[in-house]
Structure formats: structure tokens, C-alpha cells
Design brief:
alpha+beta; Glutaredoxin; Glutathione S-transferase Yfyf (Class Pi), Chain A, domain 2; 2 domains; 9 helices; 4 strands; about 10% strand; globular
Length: about 230
């Protein structure tokens, strides 16, 4: 067991660990957000402490957990963001597994070293037939189909909402060359959903105080005009 019961290892960006960070905070667990860099990541891989060779990694009192969705599902139990009904819990899992590929929008662009080339490649993703456009259209469609304000059709916010909220709007923080927040003006349903989640009391409290220049501005109420 570590000195702090829970430690979450990830890069110093929201990314694939942000939903877990929220869940850890909402569960009122004692935890440490361990920001890693390239050398720390390489050392962790070399020592074999990353079960699948990737981060995020969550160290718990019971052992280590890897893979962002596995971590989120585990923490969902801790912060009561999983439906008690077995079918609705499965619908949350269905959403998490189904929407995952649509959040790999920027894959293939991180290895482009030339800034202008990388920027152009990412801007192309959001053209009418681009991968980014298709992903946002799919997400907008799923939100419209939900009978409740929450993406997986649950009565209350679930871990599926944490995932969608952090992944989708984290893209538009300004951290990624060529990904412009103005794109979201084409998705009114998605913007309305942002308003719903950002104003959920636990979420608005979580992001109430951010340091100047924080990439997490996208998670605050009013971040994007509705």
C-alpha cells in the first residue's frame, strides 16, 4: 500500500485521466494526482510497473489498475455514478465501449513534427467528411436519442457522462494545434449537453477554482456559447 491510498499517474493534461480525476474527487477518496513526463514514463515502462505499457495508471490499496475505462468503471462504484439497475448499468458500459473509437480523433497526428503540417492535418479532421466531424455527429445523435439529459439514458449522471464531457470538450482547450473551439458552433445539441453537465452542482464545484491558463477552462459553465 502506498503512503497515499490512491495515486493516479498521467501526463499533465486532462486527456484520458480527467474523468478518473473527477470520480476520485467526487468519491472523497484520499488521492494524489501524479503528473509524469517522458523520462518518468520511460522509467515506469522499463521497471514493468505499467501492466499494458500505457498510462493512466491508478495505484489503489488493493493493487494497480490500468486502462482508462477499467479505472473509470472501478471508481464509478466508489462515487455512486453507476446505476443500481443491472440493465442500465449495462447501457452505461455499452455507451463507454461503443463511443470509445470516436474519441480517437487525433490519433495519427501526434507524430507529425512540423507544426504547419500537423495543424493542417487536424483542421482536415473537421471538414465535412473528416473523422472528427463524424465523431461529433455521432455524439450529437446519441445525445438526441437519450430519453434523459444524460448520454446513456440514465436517470442521473453516470461515468459515461464523465467520459464524454471530459474527452469531447477537452479537445477544444487550445492544447491541440488545428483544433478550434469554433467548430462546436455546428453542434447545438452537444453545446446544450455541455451546459447540463458543467452546471451539475458536483461538476461546477469541482471546476470552480482553476489556475490562470488552465486547460480545464472548457469544463466550466459558459465555456462555450450555447
Amino acid at each position: 500500500m502506498t503512503s497515499t491510498p490512491y495515486k493516479l499517474y498521467y501526463w499533465p493534461i486532462p486527456g484520458r485521466a480527467e474523468a478518473a480525476r473527477i470520480a476520485l474527487s467526487l468519491a472523497n477518496l484520499e488521492w494524489e494526482d501524479v503528473e509524469i513526463d517522458g523520462s518518468r514514463f520511460a522509467a515506469m515502462k522499463a521497471e514493468g510497473s505499467l501492466p499494458w505499457g500505457m498510462v493512466p495508471l491508478l495505484r489503489t490499496p488493493y493493487g494497480d489498475l490500468a486502462e482508462s475505462l477499467a479505472i473509470l468503471r472501478y471508481l464509478g462504484h466508489q462515487c455512486n455514478l453507476l446505476p443500481s439497475d443491472a440493465f442500465m448499468a449495462a447501457k452505461v458500459d455499452e455507451f463507454l465501449d461503443g463511443i470509445g473509437p470516436y474519441f480517437s480523433i487525433l490519433d495519427g497526428t501526434f507524430g507529425i513534427e512540423d507544426v504547419e503540417e500537423r495543424t493542417a492535418a487536424r483542421e482536415a479532421l473537421f471538414l465535412p467528411n473528416g473523422k472528427g466531424t463524424k465523431g461529433l455527429e455521432m455524439l450529437e445523435k446519441k445525445i438526441q436519442e437519450s430519453p434523459t439529459p444524460w448520454v446513456a439514458g440514465t436517470d442521473n449522471m453516470s461515468i459515461a457522462d464523465l467520459m464524454v464531457f471530459t474527452y469531447a470538450f477537452g479537445l477544444f482547450s487550445g492544447n491541440f494545434d488545428g483544433v478550434h473551439a469554433s467548430v462546436l458552433a455546428n453542434y447545438p445539441v452537444l453545446l446544450s449537453y455541455h451546459d447540463t453537465v458543467a452546471n451539475e452542482p458536483r461538476i461546477s464545484d469541482h471546476y470552480a477554482e482553476l489556475p490562470e491558463g488552465s486547460l480545464r477552462w472548457t469544463y466550466q459553465p459558459g465555456a462555450f456559447p450555447v
